[in-house]
Write a structure and sequence with these properties.
Helix 3 crosses helix 4 and helix 5 packs antiparallel against helix 8. The protein has a single domain, classed as Alpha/Beta hydrolase fold, catalytic domain (Rossmann fold). It has an eight-stranded mixed β-sheet with strand order 1-2-4-3-5-6-7-8, sandwiched between helices. The protein is globular. With about 300 residues, it is α/β, with parallel strands linked by helices. It has eleven helices and eight strands. The protein is about 40% helix and about 15% strand.
């Protein structure tokens, strides 16, 4: 692992899966989800490394080792938090390109990471973007939540845990999987993977009130049709989700997003719903099949 320092002296911690002395055929930059970290993507990274693809995964502000290094768990920034996190992805992307000039760099964003990736790819070229466990919410669904988050910022302060926002965001996700063994059954059918998540102190914590405000701001931005329509339409996009993922409403949101990107003239858009899988398709019982799909998609576009 290594650190990338931005111009304000903020340290972003990044993990790398590389083979010394080998030249990669492609590189995958991972953009992880909310209340987790880049270290959880080792399984995919090792699989790709055996096939000549290097992987980099940075921890966002307020997450994982970056939060340990500087900042509060579950808190982006005092101001422009969303923007800063998207900029951080650009910083990591540039340092990968400098280290490996001419090698195609792909991005895989999972869950919240897929939202960050959708914002980043809007104005930045990339060899292709894989969006795992993404979701679509209309402005009508998002504005009331944003008002609540803003009110909570005033009354509770930005750095306090956003328990109500957390409950409203994730409270119903476990309902389809009752009787529940844990609060996170919706992540995967693989109990051992769910247990690893539950036992990881860098996973599953309640994010701050300020964080939810930033996230909602980002969601309102990326789900607007004008934002999708004004993006880089040559970038290949691959929507990949679990058939039983409550975050994407069991595939309903994926169909919608696929329709939008295709309808607005993106040149290479594909989608795949993973049979029976819940939210974390890379930690599911059929993860080997998903890894292979990702590898094939990258290989075809390298």
């Amino acid at each position: 692992r290594f650190k990338i320092i931005d111009e304000k002296g903020f340290a972003i911690v990044c993990r790398a899966w590389e083979k010394e002395g080998a030249a990669p055929t492609a590189i995958l930059q991972i953009v992880h989800g909310m209340a987790e970290h880049g270290g959880r993507y080792g399984g995919l990274a090792e699989f790709l490394l055996e096939r000549g693809i290097f992987t980099f995964a940075s921890d966002h502000r307020g997450h994982g080792l970056t939060a340990t290094e500087n900042g509060t768990m579950g808190y982006f920034a005092d101001e422009k938090g969303w923007e800063k996190v998207v900029d951080d992805i650009g910083l990591v992307n540039r340092s990968i390109r400098e280290a490996y000039p001419g090698v195609p760099v792909f991005i895989l964003g999972h869950s919240m990471g897929s939202f960050i990736a959708r914002d980043y790819m809007h104005a930045n070229e990339s060899s292709g973007v894989i969006l795992s466990g993404s979701a679509y919410k209309s402005g009508w669904e998002l504005f009331p939540a944003k008002l609540l988050a803003d009110a909570q910022k005033v009354f509770l302060g930005k750095r306090n845990p956003g328990r109500l926002m957390d409950k409203l965001s994730f409270g119903s996700f476990n309902d389809s999987f009752s009787p529940n063994r844990t609060s996170f059954d919706w992540l995967s059918r693989d109990d051992s993977e769910v247990d690893k998540y539950v036992e990881d102190p860098m996973c599953g914590y309640v994010c701050t009130v300020g964080f939810f405000g930033d996230l909602l701001e980002g969601l309102i931005k990326i789900n607007s049709r004008s934002h999708i329509d004004s993006g880089m339409k040559k970038t290949p996009v691959f929507f990949l989700s679990g058939e039983k993922d409550p975050v994407g409403r069991n595939g309903e949101d994926i169909e919608k997003l696929f329709g939008f990107y295709k309808g607005f003239g993106y040149e290479d858009v594909s989608k795949k719903l993973i049979k029976g899988a819940r939210h974390e398709i890379l930690n599911e019982t059929n993860r080997v099949e998903t890894r292979a799909l990702i590898y094939e998609w990258i290989k075809e576009r390298s």
